[in-house]
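Title: Request for sanity check on Phage protein prediction

Description:
We are preparing a figure and want to confirm that the structure record we downloaded matches what your pipeline produces today. Could someone re-run it with the sequence below and paste the raw structure tokens into this thread? We only need the token string, no images.
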Amino acid sequence: MGAIVTNLVVDWELVINILSVLVTLFIGVAVLVSTNKYNKNQSDIANHQLQKQLFGEFNKRYDVLNGYLEKITKYESLEHLKKNKPNKYPFLRNKLNDYFNLCAEEFYWYNKGRIDEDLWKSWEVGMNSWYNNHEIIREAWKEEYENFGHQSFYLKEGEQFFKEYKARV
């Protein structure tokens, strides 16, 4: 009978060692899962904060540009603007460039996944409304795009944020 008790003690030690390994493994997996969940939540919060920051900054910049766009689009062409407002032409032309740069930045951050689809679609509709409804915007964009190329606006070759624009190939 003494031999059986010795064998049982050895078996219990084995069981305790196995359980110890399993508990350690379980705790490790639980820590890994909770750490991943925490990191994802933190990443989501950071992305939402960045999107909110970009949204505020871009809307603030657009609010400033909107009045200038309204003034500029009263003219049918860049030549007409230059002829009627020769002193203000360079300033207003720069405001058009500021608008194109704003559009490019919004498109860039959308492509990087920092602006969600719904927000981008709203901005895209507005951008294309200005472009589609005002010849002077189309003329200025064509001039900028052809002079400085797609890379100047964070675009890949053939890519556009103004849907109606057809680049020369």
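Thanks, this matches our download. Residues 2-72 form the longest helix (71 residues).
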